[in-house]
């Protein structure tokens, strides 16, 4: 497994997120994302655990794009990945963001 | 989203649970944010899941208090590791003090998680004993089987220890899985790639015809919910009573007789032929048609 942590600047999330939400399942080509509230309102902290070694550059590109597209400051994301493609990661991040705001049940 | 159209087979464990119980009633035990992950998978440098592949908690179902566990078949085939097993066993132990109306086990598992070897085997044996203790205390335990991994290995045994077993046709129940049998005994014994054959032997319609599943329902989460509610109401009126020795000896004699009667059977169709006028049509029947014909013949 390869692990790294990124802290990405992002506008504060407008809603008050108080509880944790989990999206996705750790299975081949898939990942789970745990979203929790964090103290830093101007940044999003992301911990990545991935079974695919040597793809940190691509992870950073996908995660920076996510932090730019959405206001995710004040959130902490923890990712368990079993080799998901960048497109799947991006879609799962969007789903996690929508779910933690209560938009998807 | 139209709740009526959600396939139980396709849904994740969390989705099944959230749609099965009363909306918003689930309070999770050992939730993902507690990060109770597998130390064995970590040692093997394998991917972890924050819930170790099983959701456990307390909920209400049609207003009745229930304790629930749902295995995630897509994480390591729903296999039972040390933490995963401890969560289910802990849930069952908790039933003894909380005394819910029922315990629901949404089983979707190939059995023991081989990465965890003895720890997984011990976990399964603890679950078995706990299921029996809960029932001996007068609390029914219902198994719901309709996921892609079915209920195999130790979890197949756990399923059959439960008070009632609700299955969909898509659900499967057995001890050794088809791939294992083919590997050990050869393709002539069991062609695991013949999917229709696999389902005619391990699937819900054969298990229901044999009485190993006690209800057959459509592959829809609301159908499992309706079945669970009807079972809860039935057992509230008549709590489970532990079998006495004579009853167990009677069941043993029936199973011995059944084993001799079907000794030469190679396909579910030969067993359906005992009950159904057109055994070859059974796989095509709707669940409603199947249940009517089974009821008429019984």
UniProtKB/TrEMBL annotation, chain A:
Q: Where in the cell is it found?
A: Cytoplasm
- Record flagged with keyword Protein transport: no
Q: Which Pfam families match?
A: ACP (PF06857)
Species per Swiss-Prot/TrEMBL record? mine drainage metagenome
Q: Does the keyword Metal-binding apply?
A: no
UniProt main location, coarse:
cytoplasm
Protein name, please?
Malonate decarboxylase acyl carrier protein
**Gene behind this chain?**
mdcC_3
One cellular component term (GO) for this entry is:
cytoplasm
Keywords for this entry?
Answer: Cytoplasm, Phosphoprotein
Automatic annotation (TrEMBL), chain B:
The entry's keywords: Transferase
What positions belong to coiled-coil segments? Answer: none
User: Which GO BP terms sit in this record?
Assistant: carbohydrate metabolic process; fatty acid biosynthetic process; malonyl-CoA biosynthetic process
Enzyme Commission code = 2.1.3.10
Instruction: Give the EC class as a word.
Output: transferase
Residue stretches making up the CoA carboxyltransferase N-terminal domain: 1-240
PROSITE patterns cross-referenced by the UniProt entry: COA_CT_NTER
Q: Which InterPro entries match?
A: AcCoA_carboxyl_beta, ClpP/crotonase-like_dom_sf, COA_CT_N, Malonate_beta
Gene Ontology terms for molecular function: acetyl-CoA carboxylase activity; carboxy-lyase activity; transferase activity
According to UniProt, the name of this protein is: Malonyl-S-ACP:biotin-protein carboxyltransferase MADC
Source organism (scientific name):
mine drainage metagenome
């Amino acid at each position: 497994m390869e692990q790294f942590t990124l802290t990405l600047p992002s506008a504060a999330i407008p809603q008050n997120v108080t509880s944790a939400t989990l999206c996705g399942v750790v299975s081949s080509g898939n990942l789970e994302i745990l979203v929790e509230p964090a103290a830093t309102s101007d940044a999003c902290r992301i911990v990545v655990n991935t079974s695919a070694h040597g793809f940190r550059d691509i992870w950073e590109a996908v995660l920076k794009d996510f932090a730019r597209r959405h206001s995710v400051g004040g959130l902490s994301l923890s990712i368990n990945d079993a080799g998901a493609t960048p497109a799947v990661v991006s879609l799962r991040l969007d789903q996690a963001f929508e779910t933690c705001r209560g938009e998807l049940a | 989203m139209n709740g009526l159209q959600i396939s139980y087979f396709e849904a994740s464990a969390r989705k099944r649970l959230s749609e099965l119980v009363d909306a918003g009633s689930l309070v999770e035990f050992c939730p993902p944010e507690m990060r109770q992950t597998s130390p064995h998978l970590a040692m093997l440098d394998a991917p972890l899941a924050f819930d170790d592949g099983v959701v456990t908690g307390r909920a209400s179902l049609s207003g009745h208090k229930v304790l629930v566990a749902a295995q995630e078949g897509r994480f390591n085939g729903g296999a039972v590791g040390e933490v995963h097993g401890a969560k289910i066993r802990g849930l069952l132990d908790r039933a003894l003090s909380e005394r819910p109306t029922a315990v629901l086990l949404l089983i979707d598992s190939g059995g023991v998680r081989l990465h965890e070897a003895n720890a997984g085997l011990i976990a399964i044996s603890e679950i078995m004993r706990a299921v029996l203790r809960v029932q001996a205390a007068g609390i029914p335990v219902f198994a719901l089987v309709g996921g892609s991994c079915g209920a195999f290995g130790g979890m197949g045994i756990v399923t059959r220890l439960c008070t009632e077993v609700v299955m969909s046709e898509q659900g499967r129940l057995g001890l050794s899985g088809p791939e294992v049998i083919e590997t050990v005994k050869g393709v002539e014994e069991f062609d695991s790639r013949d999917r229709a054959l696999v389902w005619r032997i391990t699937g819900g319609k054969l298990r229901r015809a044999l009485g190993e599943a006690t209800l057959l329902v459509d592959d829809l989460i609301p159908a499992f919910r309706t079945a669970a509610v009807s079972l809860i109401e039935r057992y509230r009126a008549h709590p489970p009573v532990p079998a006495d020795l004579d009853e167990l000896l009677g069941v043993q004699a029936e199973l011995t007789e059944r084993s001799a009667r079907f000794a030469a059977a190679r396909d579910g169709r030969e067993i359906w032929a005992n009950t159904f006028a057109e055994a070859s049509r059974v796989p095509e029947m709707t669940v409603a048609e199947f249940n009517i014909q089974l009821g008429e013949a019984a």
